[in-house]
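User: Protein folding is very new to me. Would you mind checking the protein record under this note? It all follows right here:
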Amino acid sequence: MLNQNKTPLLDALKANAARPHAPFYTPGHKLGEGVSQPLADLLGKAVFRADLTELADLDNLFAPQGVIQEAQQLASEAFGALQTWFLVNGSTCGIEAAILATCDTGDKIILPRNVHSSAIAGLILSGAIPIFIHPEYDPVLDIAHSITPNAIQSALQQHPYAKAVLVVYPTYYGVCGDLSAIANITHQYNIPLLVDEAHGAHFAFHPELPTPALAAGADLTVQSIHKVLGAMTQASMLHIQGNRIDCDRISKALQLVQSTSPSYLLLASLDAARQQMALHGKMLMSRTLQLAEEARTRISQIPGLSVLEMPQLAGSPGFVTLDKTRLTVTVSGLGLTGFEADEILDEKFAVTAEFASLQHLTFIISLGNIPADIEQLVQGFTTLAKEYRRSNLTVKNQVWLNLDRTLDYALQLSPRQAFFAVSEILPLTQTNKRICAEIVCPYPPGIPVLMPGEVITKSVLEYLQQIQAMGGFISGCNDISLKSLKVVK
């Protein structure tokens, strides 16, 4: 057992920031002396004294032998991994590296169609061929859950030489599928199970939370420590266990997708967040779960509102358990879209959701929330239901809410081939049946509706236009106004 009280990287950074010396190395602000006054007024000088580079005492992220190596070993033990890598380019670079480390050009990888755009970037970089599986879908709530073990089994039977399976666990809504069963099926083919666990870094620290991906049998998992724990934005971790993945290939892949000038502020925040959870994680998660349960109970009692819960009957293969710190509120009973409700809550009541969809608002309740936040959230919804309620959504909108489940998808070229192909930009009205050459996704949650290599269809174009018309934001593409699209020439 390692001493989880230690914070080797944080301590080294603190010591170097306090050491009097003349700095003749990057960054250019030289311990904060060169920063602009408005920036210093906002952040203070202390943060810039700690904004250091790869000094001798601070180790090297790409060849760690000192304090970074020790900090990563502590994290491995705390999160239950064989080996852990710190990430400073977010979980995005971790997902990209996972695909690069397991797939070569032309190799097949099985993954859900609603993966994050980082997985599409991984396909483009690696040249891998996606075998997409549609996740289980709840037509009443208009929410996609997880992919099922049966779907994985079927895909592997059809593509037995696939090099990896990638799943999302939990979903943006906090839904967890049967990951243990998926791991068992995947391992029957002796291929690795990769998990986008960006929103599940807290699972290892409380028994009432879903089973962590590694404990469920994943070979590799990527966690956004900043999303639900106490690290700084962009700070994440990649963990592996077992021998199905080459550790050296992971390290080399990360060198391709991470900055060669990593922020030690981000790295130290990972060290500190690990220590916090290793020492106090159960207590912090108990308090967080209590706050979440209070919010869930009180909001579910407001007329016109409901919250996402576990199915009353036995959970489906795509919805085995729910992260109770993730709160999804259905607002369509108020005659409002999620986009409208989001705007009202934010502007009128200073309550800001993680993301909005057509029928729902989703909130992350984490160790940083306090009882006053929950009270403000509940009061905001109470007033919303009383003062902003309208007649139900129109039939047109209700029909459209399910449209994305019937979209036509057909991959004509690999994502890499289409991304690097000669392309042209056409007005949206002229792109039907053309091959897309860019990523197009509503954000958040950053799930692509179109990706390079897919045939653009009328239903997809209508879906994107409706999202935009109802307040959603389109990202990833060259023209975010959506008047044009880039297509293969």
About this structure: Residues 264-300 form the longest helix (37 residues). Residues 126 and 216 are 27 Å apart (CA to CA). The longest strand covers residues 83-87. DSSP finds 16 helices and 19 strands in the chain.
